[in-house]
């Protein structure tokens, strides 16, 4: 219905633009050679055309990727407010996190970049559009600050930090026997991919998880590029299916947002339920989330979670996820995620994939042994050091130009040296 209404509206507006052009052309003929008349003609035509495009785009937001790109422009941290979502309930017994008092000199300064000059941490957070910054050691909150004046109840979107949650769901599904193994071809669950490209028979789930699927992906920054399609498309299931394999899988690491869309399809079919519901059941509540959350959908009609970006939660539940991984998948005495999966998902090296700095949708800190982080657009981070039981979370409106991996690394170094309470 929206498509029909939008098309009719576009016809009406274009007819109006044509009428304006006719009127303007008459004016130009009457004042032949008059520059003013020509300028007026151009302004009227351009203005009418832009107005027509905007009105059409707003009428088509539920059904057109291009319309969303025209109206919403580039992605931003408020996109979650524009989209429908599937909601998750908090745990009945949240994992308790206890604030502790630090020595006055603790966590006061950080380098602005690796090996760079040191500045006050509070100044850095204020100057880089940081909205939340938390430091955990075990179940102690060493630091919790909201430089934008909000609070721990404020919802923050994750962008690609959602990928680390999604990969964890796949590992859980393998452990539960709902999916065979990472060697399974994606076509076991999504056989129609073979109709599009027979080469999909060689794309295994593990290739998708390590961003080495060989699927074509070109980020152009335009409304018709793969970056816009995989982010804004109102039917992400349909968007994923026309993908093509352009090089042998497993050969090269190439960050690709078609990969999580296909994993989302696999999980949805293998578990027989929406991925957000599965997240609530096997991860969100078992890990002890204190607050509810949501996962943005492509559209009301599509009902498919934005698998690569759309998880929305409060600031203190992101470190709970990091805490779970820092404890090899255990929390409050429960094994929530298989230990073997946690180790494989965050390991450095190229034994099973082509990139030492990236595993199962986790980034690996190759300068510090055993450390890794989830990372999202505009500087969303969950940084974990299981050796010292430290987790650092940074959320923000943009990166502020900061070298966040280096900053989080330094904060974790400082946190692990602090004396324990009691």
From TrEMBL:
Query: Where does the Beta-lactamase-related domain lie?
Result: 130-409
Q: Which domain of life is it from?
A: Bacteria
Q: Give TM segment ranges.
A: 36-57
Q: Which UniProt keywords apply?
A: Membrane, Transmembrane, Transmembrane helix
This chain belongs to which protein, by name? Beta-lactamase-related domain-containing protein
């Amino acid at each position: 219905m929206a498509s029909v209404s939008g098309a009719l509206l576009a016809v009406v507006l274009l007819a109006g633009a044509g009428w304006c052009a006719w009127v303007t052309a008459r004016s130009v003929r009457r004042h032949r050679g008059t520059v003013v008349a020509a300028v007026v003609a151009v302004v009227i035509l351009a203005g009418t055309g832009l107005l027509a495009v905007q009105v059409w785009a707003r009428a088509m937001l539920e059904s057109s990727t291009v319309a969303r790109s025209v109206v919403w422009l580039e992605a931003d941290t408020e996109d979650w407010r524009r989209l429908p979502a599937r909601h998750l309930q908090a745990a009945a017994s949240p994992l308790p996190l206890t604030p502790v008092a630090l020595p006055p000199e603790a966590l006061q300064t950080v380098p602005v970049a690796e090996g760079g000059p040191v500045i006050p941490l509070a100044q850095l957070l204020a100057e880089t559009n940081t909205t939340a910054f938390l430091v955990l050691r075990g179940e102690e909150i060493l630091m919790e600050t909201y430089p934008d004046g909000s609070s721990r109840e404020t919802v923050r979107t994750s962008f690609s930090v959602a990928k680390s949650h999604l990969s964890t769901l796949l590992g859980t599904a393998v452990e539960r026997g709902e999916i065979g193994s990472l060697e399974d071809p994606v076509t076991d669950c999504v056989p129609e991919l073979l109709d599009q490209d027979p080469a999909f028979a060689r794309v295994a789930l593990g290739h998708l998880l390590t961003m080495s699927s060989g699927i074509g992906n070109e980020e152009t920054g335009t409304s018709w590029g793969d970056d816009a399609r995989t982010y804004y498309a109102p039917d992400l299931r349909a968007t994923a299916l026309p993908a093509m394999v352009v090089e042998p899988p497993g050969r090269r690491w190439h960050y690709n947002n078609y990969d999580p869309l296909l994993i989302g399809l696999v999980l949805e079919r293998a578990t027989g339920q929406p991925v957000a519901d599965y997240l609530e059941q096997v991860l969100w509540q078992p890990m002890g989330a204190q607050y509810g959350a949501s996962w943005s959908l492509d559209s009301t009609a599509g009902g498919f979670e934005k698998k690569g970006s759309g998880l929305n939660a409060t600031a203190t539940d992101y470190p709970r996820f990091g805490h779970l991984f820092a404890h090899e998948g255990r929390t409050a005495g429960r094994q929530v995620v298989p230990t073997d999966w946690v180790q494989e998902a965050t390991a450095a090296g190229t034994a099973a994939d082509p990139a030492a700095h990236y595993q199962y949708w986790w980034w690996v800190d190759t300068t510090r042994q055993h450390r890794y982080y989830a990372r999202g657009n505009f500087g969303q981070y969950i940084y974990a050091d299981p050796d010292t039981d430290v987790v650092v979370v940074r959320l923000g409106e943009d990166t502020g130009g900061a070298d966040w991996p280096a900053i989080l690394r330094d904060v974790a170094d400082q946190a692990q040296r602090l004396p324990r309470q009691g």
